Every structure is written in C-alpha cells, then in structure tokens.
Automatic annotation (TrEMBL), chain A:
The keyword GTP-binding does not apply. It comes from Adineta ricciae. Residues 255-367 form the Phospholipid/glycerol acyltransferase domain. It is found in: Membrane. The chain crosses the membrane at residues 168-186, 193-212. Pathway: Lipid metabolism; Phospholipid metabolism. This is Phospholipid/glycerol acyltransferase domain-containing protein. Residues 1-19 form the signal peptide.
UniProtKB/TrEMBL annotation, chain B:
GO terms for molecular function: calcium ion binding. This is EF-hand domain-containing protein. Residues 106-141, 147-182 form the EF-hand domain. The keyword Calcium applies. It comes from the Eukaryota. GO terms for cellular component: cytoplasm; nucleus; plasma membrane. SMART domains: EFh. CDD domains: EFh (cd00051). Keywords: Calcium, Cell membrane, Cytoplasm, Lipoprotein, Membrane, Metal-binding, Myristate, Nucleus, Phosphoprotein, Protein transport, Repeat, Transport. Belongs to the calcineurin regulatory subunit family. CHP subfamily. PROSITE patterns: EF_HAND_1 (PS00018), EF_HAND_2 (PS50222). GO terms for biological process: protein transport. The lineage of its organism: Eukaryota, Metazoa, Spiralia, Gnathifera, Rotifera. It is found in: Cell membrane; Cytoplasm; Nucleus.
C-alpha cells in the first residue's frame, strides 16, 4: 500500500499519468452500458402493451411540462433599484400636488381624466395566464431543480444514490451492484483515504519547510509548485480525470479567474494546473488551520467575518493584491453557491467592478456518469459529501479556459458580469439563467412581484 | 443511500393512478420525482411553504391565491399528498383529443378551477369583494382602490344577468365561451 502511495505521489509531482485511470473509466463505461441494457430490457417487458415505445431514455435536461411562450413571467435583466413602495409614494405625492392646484376648470378635467382611467376593463378570464403559469411552475420551474442533483440519467452507473427508486431488476444487476459496492467501499475508499492523509502530511511538511526558507522570491516560486503538487495528490484522492482545453488562456498573475461553482472540489480541480490565491472568510478550527498553512505557500486573501459585509474593503484588498507583481491570480466563484452543473446562475457583480484586472473565465463541466460532484449542502454536510466523493467511481471533468475579457467603455459591472456568464454558459453547454443562486435559501425580493403587477397593469391599459 | 421506502410509489397505486387520470406511467413517475424534490423535509406531503419556495410561484401575483386554492380545495389541514397532487394536475391535461379526456380534465373542470380562484367562500357566486380581492392582487399598487372598485363594479354590471350583483358559475362560463379555455388552461405534460 505504501509503495503504491509513494508511486502515486511521484507521478503527481511529475505530472505524468500511467493511463490507469483512463483505462479504468473506459472499462466502467462498458459495464454501465451493459447494466443499463439489462435494465431497459426488463422495463420493456414489464410495461403494458398499450404504452408508446419507451426505449428513448430520459434526458436530464428535458422539461416535465412544455412552457407556454405567451408573455411568460421572467426575470428580466433590469432589476429595479427602487422598491415599488417608493414608486407609489411618488405617484401619490404628485397627485396631491395636482389636486391642491385645482380650480373649477381643473375639476372638470379631473372628472374626464377619471373616466378615461375607468375605461380600463378587466375580464374574468384575465387570470388564466397567471394561473396556468403558476401551475406550470409548480410542476417544473427553472430554479429549484438546479439545487439538487440532476435528474435520472440515461445510463445507470451502479450507484443507488443516483437511482430514484431502487427496484429489483434482475439478479445480474444486483450482483453487479454488490460487486461495485465492495470495490468502492473496501478497495478504493481505504486507498483514497491513505492518499488523503498523505496529502495533508505533504501540505504540513511543505508549509514548515517554506516557513523557514530564506529568500522571499524563491519562496513564492517554490510555493507555486508545492501548491500544484498538493492539488494533484488531492485530485487523485477523488480519482479525478481532468481534461484541460485551451491552456494558452491560463490565468496569469495580476488577473482574476472566474468559474462556475458546483462543489468544493472545483478549487482542487483548477489548482492542479495553475496556482491561485484564494479569497474568503477566516474560519476557525480545522479549516482555519488549513487556511493558515496554505498562507505559507502563497499570498491568499483571508478577511475577518466583520469585514466580509463591507464590500468596499474586500474590493480594496483585491486591488492591492493584484498590484503586487508576483502575486497569483485570484480565484472567485461569482455565483456564490453550488449549482448542479446544468446551468449558470446570476454572477454577483462584486469582482467585476475591479476594472484594473482582466477576467479569465473558466467553464467546469463534470461528467455525471462516474460520480455526481454536486454538493447539495442542505442534504449533506461537508464531511458526508467528501465520503460520497471518495466512494464514487471517479470524477471526470472538462476544464475549458476561455480568452480573457475586460469591461467595455460604456458597460457597467452588471452587464459585464452577464457577458462573462454568457460566455461560460455557451462553452460548457449550460442553461444561462438570470436567477440568483441565493434563492437556494431565501425567497425572491418583493420587487419582482411588483414588477409583474406593473406588467399586468400596463397590459390592461393598452387593451 | 437509497430512497425513503415509506413514500415510494407502489406498483398497483401507479396503475390505478394512470387509469384514472390518464397520465402515462413515465409521466406519473416524473411527477412523483418532482413531488419528492419539492418535499424537502421528506415527509410525504407538501405544505404552503414548500410551494411558496418556488421562485416563479413566489413572484406570480396570483401565486398565493393559487396556493390557497390548492391547499384548501385539494389538500387537507394545510397538507397535500401525492395522490391529491396528481389528481389536481390531472385536471390540466389537454382535453382536445377525445381519447385523452377522462372525468378530470374536462373543459368544465378547468373552468371550475378558475371560478374557484375567485370564489373562496364556496357559495358558487363571485361577489364584489371577491372580485376586488383578485383585482388588488393582480395590479398591486398601480391602481388606486377607488379605481379598482369602479373597474370591479363595471365588470359585474356587464356580466350579471340576473341582477343579484354577483356572478354565478353559469354567467362565468358564458363570458368565457369565446375563449378556448381548454387551450389556455392546459399544460402539455412531456414524458
């Protein structure tokens, strides 16, 4: 066991691969296809004869209900900055001003104005569209399904966690599943655990080594490589098979790297090819120790909890960081939370306001067949999630580096953020949504409903 | 690992539901997955809060009223279980083709649902206050209360044939005669 671990470590350091993992993944692919074929055959024979052919597998992105296209409720880009109540106050005060200037003539005019407004007609059937849209949203909406693992896949990968209902299909499949279970929990998992411990040891040793190392410049350079090796070991812990595309667009120092967020592993995956400065809140406990240790290998930006609320202070710190020549690029996930890798949600504009640094977008696309990397934080805590990851088959991921982007002349940060998001969505094949990832835990603001009411009112007026 | 056995869909229930509602097996299974996804606490029923969490329903001006109708008329004690859920949704299957019509998705049942969106005291009439409630929800602060009252009176005046200052179900259906309610109130369920 130790010798294999040492071998893996050596390979990680030199960034070579024996090709074992690719072969492993190909074999797994064959097994899954075989298992799915058995399952489909069984399903067809079970179903009643008057059903239409069901051999087409469910695509994970198809909708439950065809959404009607006439005037849908949508999140349009210009979210109102002023809440609806102040708008009302404005119109009310205008009207009182007008009435105080009334004369007899004005009274006449007001009456006629009043009657033209009452020409607004309301028909009982006007509620149909909203009612139907509400029902459609209950059956299938664009947002809530982004916060849980993507729907049932076409190919079953022998993990019960991805099966909605574990039905007994056939002895062969159950045998396969059991075999898979043993392999994953009793062979792969202990091995990965060893690697994980090895990685932590490496991190601690290298931190100590660097702390007492003379010469600041050399320290940063060594720190860069130490970081990469650390993350390569970590990626092998999860049996990650990463394919990089367009490495000429790798983020350079003095820039900000932006990516879509699916799981905490994103950081590890990106760091196997490039070193980044992290940015985040200072934690206590184990994670705090990790933060302090990492700080020895590179300059990260950790700020106090109280400072986190102060956006200007954070932006300042980022600016300072960018201006130091040898500092690593900053890695940021503007969605603010984990999304399930089928869509990209609203990018928070904070880091896009720093116009001095170019933005390097990165699209991270996971292949769900071998392990679902999405972290559903309301379902599993971090520890459970890591165990799930370490007992999956593998994490197969495509990393697409994209050309750098900078803010245009007349563009504001919100539009810039949207532009970058569109580029990432296009590359990764994600659905580009304007909804806020914060909706995972919070309700939408009142403003949006008031916007809908305004839309309806406008429509009534023009009928 | 594995799913919650107590709310798994049994085979015979499945067949029963398909027969009565007209949904296909795959459609019911997908709706069941949806139901479980909305049932975050895994308790086998949905509450008002579960439905209010859906952002598109939350920002819908009639969202709350829709949830009221669903919970009060189709669920009980503020809960709705899967069977009630799917029989509710069965109403909105398209009813154009004769073979797809069951007792649930007739044109009349769709209109009845719409009528219930107004008629919350279930006296089979939409009176002035009920109409005012719905109007206020739809336009919010964009029209003054007295204007809204005028509009409501105007609508009732036009549609009330028997002079009782409220709209009965028959009068309601009559006014929607020319609108293809089946088309507008149907959802196309994909499998």
């Amino acid at each position: 066991m130790i010798s294999i671990a040492a071998l893996v470590l050596a390979l990680a350091a030199m960034n070579c691969s024996l090709g074992v993992r690719s072969l492993y993944v190909r074999i797994l692919g064959f097994i899954f296809d075989y298992a799915t074929k058995i399952k489909n055959d069984k399903e067809l024979s079970n179903e009643s004869s008057d059903e239409p052919s069901t051999s087409t597998p469910n695509s994970s992105t198809s909708n439950l209900v065809e959404r009607s296209s006439d005037d849908p409720i949508e999140m349009t880009s210009d979210t109102p900055l002023v809440s609806g109540s102040t708008k009302n106050d404005e119109t009310k005060s205008n009207e009182t001003n007008e009435t105080s200037l009334e004369t007899a003539l004005d009274v006449q005019q007001k009456v006629s104005r009043g009657s033209s407004q009452s020409d607004i007609q309301f028909r009982l059937g006007d509620i149909m569209d909203y009612t139907r849209q509400g029902l459609e949203a209950i059956v299938d909406d664009e947002v809530t399904k982004r916060f849980s693992s993507a729907e049932e896949m076409a190919v079953w990968n022998l993990l019960t966690r991805t099966q909605q209902q574990h039905e007994y299909f056939s002895l062969r499949i159950t045998a396969l599943w059991f075999l898979g279970f043993c392999v994953r929990y009793f062979i792969l998992f202990p091995f990965r655990l060893c690697l994980f411990i090895l990685a932590i040891l490496w991190m601690l040793c290298s931190a100590v080594f660097l702390k007492y190392f003379p010469g600041k410049n050399a320290k940063l350079r060594y720190g860069f490589y130490i970081n990469i090796v650390l993350h390569r070991i970590l990626s092998r812990v999860f049996s990650a098979i990463i394919t990089y595309h367009n490495t000429e667009h790798r983020a350079k120092s003095g820039s900000i790297c932006v990516a879509n967020h699916t799981s905490p592993i994103d950081v590890i995956i990106l760091s196997t090819d490039n070193s980044f400065s992290m940015i985040g809140q200072k934690h206590g406990g184990f994670f705090g120790m990790v933060q302090r240790t990492l700080s020895n290998t590179a300059n990260h930006i950790w700020f106090e909890r109280s400072e986190a609320k102060d956006r200007h202070m954070v932006a300042e710190k980022m600016r300072e960081h960018i201006q130091v020549k040898d500092n690593l690029p900053i890695l940021i996930f503007p969605e603010g939370t984990c999304i399930n890798n089928t869509s990209v949600m609203m990018f928070k504009k904070g880091c896009f306001e720093i116009t001095e640094a170019p933005i390097y977008p990165v699209a991270i696309k996971y292949d769900n067949r071998f392990g679902d990397a999405f972290w559903n934080s309301s379902k599993h805590d971090l520890f459970q999630y890591l165990i799930l990851m370490m007992t999956s088959w593998a994490i197969v991921v495509d990393v697409y580096y994209l050309p750098p982007m900078t803010i245009k002349e007349n563009e504001n940060s919100v539009d810039f953020a949207r532009r970058v998001k569109a580029v990432i969505a296009k590359q990764g094949g994600f659905v580009d949504l304007e909804w806020d990832g914060g909706l995972k835990r919070a309700l939408p603001k009142e403003d949006f409903k008031q916007k809908e009411q305004r839309k309806f009112y406008e429509m009534l007026k023009t009928e | 690992m594995g799913s919650n056995a107590s709310i798994m869909l049994q085979q015979e229930d499945l067949q029963n539901i398909c027969q009565q509602t007209g949904f296909t097996v795959k459609q019911v299974q997908r709706l069941y997955s949806r139901f479980k996804a909305l049932d975050k606490r895994d308790c086998g029923y949905l509450t008002r809060e579960d439905l209010q969490c859906i952002p598109e329903v939350n920002i819908n001006p009639l969202g709350e009223r829709l949830i009221d109708v669903i919970m009060d008329d189709y669920g009980e004690h503020n809960k709705i279980n899967f069977k009630q859920f799917i029989f509710l949704l069965a109403k909105f299957r398209q009813g154009k083709i004769k073979s797809l019509i069951t007792e649930y998705n007739t044109r009349e049942s769709k209109l009845r649902f719409l009528f219930d969106m107004y008629d919350r005291n279930h006296d089979l009439k939409i009176d002035r206050s009920e109409l005012l409630d719905v109007l206020k929800m739809m336009v919010g602060g964009n029209i003054h209360d007295d204007q809204i009252a005028t509009i409501a009176d105007h609508t009732i005046g036009e549609l009330d044939k028997d002079g009782d200052r409220s709209i009965t179900f028959e009068e309601f259906c009559k006014t929607l005669e020319r609108i293809d309610a089946d088309e507008k109130m149907s959802m196309k369920f994909l499998s």
